[in-house]
Specification:
The chain is an alpha+beta fold. The protein folds into three domains: about 80 residues; about 110 residues, Cupredoxins -  blue copper proteins (Immunoglobulin-like, Sandwich), CATH 2.60.40; about 90 residues, Sandwich (Immunoglobulin-like), CATH 2.60.40.420. Helices cover about 35% and strands about 20% of the residues. It contains eight helices and twelve strands. Helix 5 crosses helix 8 and helix 6 crosses helix 8. It binds dinuclear copper ion (CUA). Dinuclear copper ion binds next to loops. The site of dinuclear copper ion has 9 residues, from loops.
């Protein structure tokens, strides 16, 4: 006996399917010109493949009923030629041309702002080059002005990573020894989630970032604040976080502009306290989490180049965390 399909089954699934269509990490909820092209291409391909699927199923159903009189070999041969070769070739060629026509838009020039992103195991080194020649470094959080085309220069330092902000555009690989170019034009403000889209090691899934799209005036103010060195008080007594940061070797890998710390291996921490998250988008940025990350780096992020500093006396890591959290 044939089991009856429950018609409510599909309806039950629908809200789940639709829930995946918007939000801060969805290619189907475009917040940028390039993502709009990708979403448009997706829907056209979906409808076209749906129509082709219905046609093929219709023909298969017709054939399976088997009540028609068999065709003459010549008629059957013509049918196979038209429906098996000519129609698919024309349909696929039309879809190919449609897809290729969207591509030059992805390669157009930027409007002056450049953001160089270097993939690292497992975080994002970000360097801004403003149109007026000013530059600054940050990590894991990108901010962009709405309505203008920003050029991304993408490379990697160790293995291949991939830069993907689904709401803003298609993904692009970061490859050691080469620089890939991507231009993104956000069309509305908001914060969107980006991920590494190429397996790159133990903490590949812990390599996220955010892109906050701002009004141009807000972006200008943010960039001006980022260019300034950290607002650090004088590095006094040995119990102070700043002094401990230098004394315990943190400065060998990290830069905090405005202090003696000028390491180049790890992320620039100059304005760490002003970031939303820690450790490439995996922990909310609180002093307690900074302390935890210092002590349990490799438990939180397996494969990270930074060792866990659980051997530090607790009051020392707490002081370093409090100081880093104050850097805005
Ligand atoms: Cu970096 Cu996956």
């Amino acid at each position: 006996m044939v089991k009856q399909e429950n018609p409510a089954y599909g309806a039950w699934l629908l809200p789940w399917a639709l829930a995946a269509c918007d939000g801060p990490q969805s290619a189907l909820d475009p917040a940028g010109h390039e993502a709009g092209l990708v979403a448009h291409l997706f829907w056209v391909m979906l409808v076209a493949s749906g129509v082709i699927w219905l046609l093929v199923m219709g023909i298969a159903f017709y054939a399976a009923r088997g009540r028609h009189t068999p065709w003459q070999p010549r008629r059957a041969g013509r049918f196979i030629l038209v429906c098996g070769a000519i129609v698919p070739t024309l349909a696929l060629a039309a879809l190919l041309v449609f897809g290729l026509r969207l591509m030059p838009g992805l390669r157009a020039a930027g409007e002056g702002l450049r953001v160089a992103v270097q993939g690292e195991q497992f975080w994002w080194r970000v360097r801004y080059e403003l149109p007026d020649g000013r530059a600054f470094a940050t990590a894991n959080e990108i901010r962009l002005p709405v309505g203008s085309r920003t050029e991304f220069l993408l490379t990697a330092q160790d293995v291949i990573h991939s830069f993907w902000v689904p709401n803003l555009g298609g993904k692009m690989d970061l490859i050691p020894g080469t620089t890939n170019r991507l231009v993104l034009e956000p069309t509305r403000t908001g914060t969107f989630r980006g991920v590494c889209a190429e397996f790159c090691g133990a903490s590949h899934a812990r390599m996220a970032f955010s892109v906050t799209v701002m009004e141009p005036s807000e972006f200008e103010a943010w960039a001006a604040a980022q260019i300034r060195p950290a607002a650090v008080g004088p590095v006094t007594g040995p119990g102070e976080g700043a002094a401990l940061f230098l004394a315990r070797g943190c400065a060998a890998c990290h830069t905090v502009r405005g202090t003696g710390a000028a390491g180049r291996i790890g992320p620039d921490l100059t304005h760490l306290g002003g970031r939303e998250t820690l450790a490439a988008g995996i922990l909310p940025n609180t002093v307690a989490n900074i302390d935890r990350f210092i002590r349990e780096t490799r438990e939180i992020k397996p494969g990270a180049r930074m060792p866990s500093f659980g051997m530090l006396p607790e009051h020392e890591s707490a002081a370093i965390a409090a100081w880093l959290g104050s850097l805005r």
